[in-house]
Amino acid sequence: MKPHSIATINDLPKDEKAAIYRKFIPQVLLENFSIAETYLDSQGRSLLRLECDAGTSNVILDLRHEENSPDPLLYAHLTDTMYDQIHVLLYVVNDPRSPRFEVDRMPDGTPTQFGLFKRNIPAEIEAFKAGLAPGQVRRGLRILRYSIASFEEFVNSLGHDLFFVEPLAYHNAIVFERYGFNYQQGRRFMEQIHLGFQPGGHLFERLDGSSPFREPGMCDSIRCRSWAIHDGVLGMPYHDVTMYKRVGEHAGIDTYPDGDW
Fold first, then answer.
1. Angle at which helices 222-230 and 170-178 cross, to 10°
2. Nearest to 229 by CA among 261, 257, 196
3. By percentage, how much of the chain surpasses pLDDT 70?
4. Structural domain includes residue 98
5. Does a structural domain hold residue 216?
6. Is residue 168 one of the residues assigned to a domain?
7. Cα–Cα distance, 180 to 200 (Å, whole number)
8. Positive or negative CA dihedral for 178, 184, 189, 195?
9. Domains held by the chain: number
10. Could you give the CA distance from residue 41 to residue 147 in angstroms, rounded to a whole number?
11. Exposed / middle / buried, residue 59 (Cβ in 10 Å: 0-12, 13-18, 19+)
């Protein structure tokens, strides 16, 4: 029987499920970093790690460009919805050749959990100055269009016509909008954020220079808005936003019209 969910893929033999999960790895990653189709390096060590135990409905995919690389080239965490549709909980692509910023850990090594529980402020300031967005430890590779195309092919192979994503930050949601995603929940929240950043709005007024992430004028870019939100300008966490993408369709949603990066 053809698999239709993460759970049914995970119950397959090891080689079969690995072959299926490799489908959503963008080919451009393999080409740009000279990764063999076997996912082995020149010494026979695997560059791809999969956590997809039988009896579970989760998969974690971790692809490195070198076996001893400190950060993944691609890291993805997928799960099933209650209706066996695919839900992307996390999808991160790093440029391993770019400088690293320690925003993911405190000076003593304690994880920050994307800055949700702890924040390494000096590292965040450096990342911000270098042009990164909240949560990024390295620059990305700007391959989202290829990632979405590969993912649509993967989802379609399972017999589905849509998939869900969890944008972890404001900028993620805006970028997803521009690639055709719609909102399952959170659209009104996003629209209220945009209104709040307009001149005279409550968020606009909070950009008072009280921190490096709340300078006047930061309302005028997607990335800077996201840093201000990460810094707590909303007065509440950025949460409860879930989006979805229909295969081959563009939803045409735009909660930040003409917004620059």
1. 150
2. 196
3. 100
4. yes
5. no
6. yes
7. 30
8. positive
9. 1
10. 23
11. buried
pLDDT of residue 105: 92
Residue 113 pLDDT exceeds 90:
no
Work out the percent of the chain whose per-residue pLDDT is above 90. Answer: 94
Instruction: Look at the alpha carbons of 206, 174, 115, 136 in this order and tell me if their dihedral is positive or negative.
Output: negative
- Is the pLDDT at 216 greater than 90? The verdict is yes
Query: pTM (2 decimals)?
Result: 0.93
Q: Structural domain of residue 113, as residue ranges?
A: 6-186+237-246
How do residues 21-44 score in pLDDT, each as one tens digit? 999 999 999 999 999 999 999 999
The DSSP code sequence of the chain is ----SHHHHHTS-HHHHHHHHGGGS-HHHHHHTT--TT-B-TTS-BSEEEE--TT-SEEEEEE-SSTT-SS-SEEEEEEE-TTS-EEEEEEEE--TTSPP--TTB-TTS-B-TTTTS---HHHHHHHHHTTPPTT-SS---S-HHHHHHHHHHHHHHTT-SEEEE---SHHHHHHHHHTT-EEEE-HHHHHHHHHHTSTTSHHHHH-SSSSTTS-TTGGGSHHHHHHHHHTTTTSS-----EEEEETT------SSTT---
Q: Examine the pLDDT at 115 and tell me if it is beyond 90.
A: no
Q: Note the pLDDT tens digit of each residue in 133-173.
A: 999 999 999 999 999 999 999 999 999 999 999 999 999 99
Structural domain contains residue 195: no
| CATH code, domain with 142 | 3.40.630
pLDDT of residue 1: 75
Could you give the angle at which helices 187-196 and 170-178 cross, rounded to 10 degrees? 110
Rounded distance, CA 92 to CA 94, Å?
7
Q: How many CB atoms lie within 10 A of CB 214?
A: 18
